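call fold(seq) -> tokens
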Amino acid sequence: MTDLPQAPFPPTGPTTGAGASSRPGRPGRLFATATLAALACLLGTACGQDDPPKVTPPAAAPATAPARAVVPPDAAGSRLAAVKRVLVIGDSLSISLGEQLEHALAGVPGLDFTRDGMRSTGLTRPDLLDWPARLKELAAKNPPDVAIIMIGANDVMPIAASDGSRVYFENPGWVDAYAAKARELVDICRQANPAVAIAWVGVPSMGEGSLAAGVKQVNAALAAMCAAAGCRFISTEAAFSDPEGRFTRHARDVATGDAVPLRTADGVHLTDTGSRLLAGVVLEALAAPEQLPPSAGIKELRAQARDMRAVADEPRHQPAREPAAKTKVRPSKKTYAVRSGDTFLTIGKRMGLDPDDIAAVNPGADSRRLSIGQTLRLPVKR
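ret:
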């Protein structure tokens, strides 16, 4: 039944004392009877129920603030606890990270988790995937409250500057050009949600020499960009390097004493244990109460990050023997037309060839200064 608004009643005054009626008997009883009849009429028991009661609107708004509606605890929780939207994007390393975070956060109430990753992509290869365009699409559909970006492992190569010119990796202007590309993703997130918390996950140490040196420059550019833009840069180099700062494939679990592999054979990608370590490092930085709600999965990954210590790879002991004569590299009849952003390393990955062999059959070519459409000879596979 809908509660009717309370009609204002005139004060009846005290029944005794100076304000009381001095006339005894019937007039007082008539006044009481009239008052009861008026009350019964308002409640629909003494008056005709077919005719709605006339309600006098209040003359003015109350001077004090209106009381907030009281919501039952269950309803209050569902209304007041806004859903936190978490977005993870990036290259193949982000895919490993996203899978572990998705598992750790599964079933956490009030959390909406989305991940989107693509192998071999970065900010220097828009021909593979235009990340700014892709992020605009994702953020428009579901503006993130927490955005975790892991892009950079594939970006040790030339980049297109804002004026369309090609900036080579060793050029001093590369850092600024790359930082501007990264800042574009930060701005896209903030356009979708000005209050978004943004974290950029750095590239872990790499096994291949030139790539290992290159990602240090990438990380430096990203860290400087985050400092200027007011977002968080999460370094992962220490977690995947031995005590001397060198790349390692292994770590030791201090809880069990076991040595466990962190990296796959290519020295780039992560094993399941390595993926869990990466996720733990990220959660150590992000799992404060204002970022992510507590969960058993988060607690477990954070504990693993604290218990896992990267150790130097043990040298392989092999019997001494005469080094075998190196097989001479022979060029094949096949050629390759250089694409945007290509280096000997990326061409080797794409064609299944050793980058050193490609360099050997193209002695006049500089891997860092290849031109689009340039013809390269390909070596015979061995």
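Residues 331-379 form a domain with the Membrane-bound Lytic Murein Transglycosylase D; Chain A fold (CATH 3.10.350.10).
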